[in-house]
User: Fold non-reducing end alpha-L-arabinofuranosidase from Heyndrickxia ginsengihumi.
Amino acid sequence: MKNTIVINTDIEKGKINRNIYGHFAEHLGRCIYEGIWVGEDVNISHTKGIRNDVLNALQQLNIPVLRWPGGCFADEYHWKDGIGTREERKRIVNTHWGGVVENNHFGTHEFMLLCEFLGCEPYICGNVGSGTVQEMSEWIEYMTFDGESPMANWRKENGRTEPWHLKYFGVGNENWGCGGHMRPEYYADLYRRYQTYARNYGENRLYKIAGGPNVDDYNWTEILMKQAGAFMDGLSLHYYTIPGDFWKGKGSALNFTEDEWFISMNKALYMDELITKHSTIMDQYDPEKRVGLIIDEWGTWFDVEPGTNPGFLYQQNTIRDAVIAALHFHIFHEHCDRVQMANIAQTVNVLQAMILTEGDKMLKTPTYHVFDLFKVHQDATLLAIESDIEIIKRGEIEIPKVTVSASKDASGICHVSLVNIDVENSANVELFLQGIEGNLELSGTVLTATVQNAHNTFDQPENVSPAEFRQFQLENDTIDVQLPPMSITILKINS
Ligand code: AHR
Assistant:
């Protein structure tokens, strides 16, 4: 069957918030330590303790915002342990993640430096679960107050004269689970209380994010919006793509069947239903869509790689992960009126990572390349699309073979991203461009593979990497495209 897609280049549906391409880095396994922070006394090339190979690779992605320090870790993190002379910082146990020693060498100053190097906004998640209102309030004072105060003076003593700019602040994490096992009514009240003392100092304006629902807990969204909606700028949502069962076996990142491929795709596409239903509830309390839905944890979650610490959540990353990432972006784009930020879990060495490291070696995963290819959509205008797409069936599962998104950037260039979900067959697509005039210049890039578990290794780091895409014919305003199986393609259209 021929799939047809009409792109209305003159019908704008909204702006794709660049923060949808955000990241998340937790004190978990080898994400922060080894993956990002190596300290100043090692043979690995670094700038002020941050490894240069990873930094350079991440700088390419134009990361807009980085969430830290957790995750579950955030609700046990006491920020005062992580400032001052590094050797004197408290050594604590990371109870959530592997019971390993956390030496607190990567703290507020180091995180802010990382954000400065990446040119991104910091997004800090505060501790509600085991921290006090005073502790949270003082952290914000420490970071953002420009004047004479105990916390600002302390910051200066620790070498930072100017306050930092901090916009995004989360009031706890997964408060229904590792963040305190609270009921929504109780958390709504706590949220109101903690956020009261999250002050705006000087010019700094906080965008306050309340801990949101677990997957399809619509009651949580309802209660939070009703009782605390007026006090928040964003409400978070967490949803992971897990092909198997969270407790009984999630499935392997590398050894999976074609059936598991389709199950994974179906589960990834479920994000659309979740956003739609949570948004509908939010619409009742916030019809102007002032409050953003902040999907600050998403991505694949598989069993850890055999032989690795089960508490470190280290998994390989294949073309399946890349396709899933692209599907998520298409869904986030469509909901750009409500989704103001999303943060993939996690940046390095944990879950659906962009980068894997081993000693002084590093590799870019297939997911990295999707972030790189899709960065052209950041802050671009979403274009209206009509489509007629084949449905593929596998047992009970029925999913579209192809998904698509199109945007126009500030200079008028259109980018169309296309995903062929089908693991076996290529997809023929006829693309009609409406509202575009003159001679078109067209070029493309594709990320694909010949086996469903294709991935990059430290010996073959380029196994899955982008290539020029030529399988298209352009005639007037119509493009005939042949998408390879399991592929992600980006077309650049200049008129
Ligand atoms: O990303 C791993 C963990 O998943 C986070 O710490 C937690 O918030 C979620 O359950």
The domain at 3-9+383-494 is CATH 2.60.40.1180 (Immunoglobulin-like). The two ends are 29 Å apart (CA to CA). The chain has two domains: 3-9+383-494, 16-379.
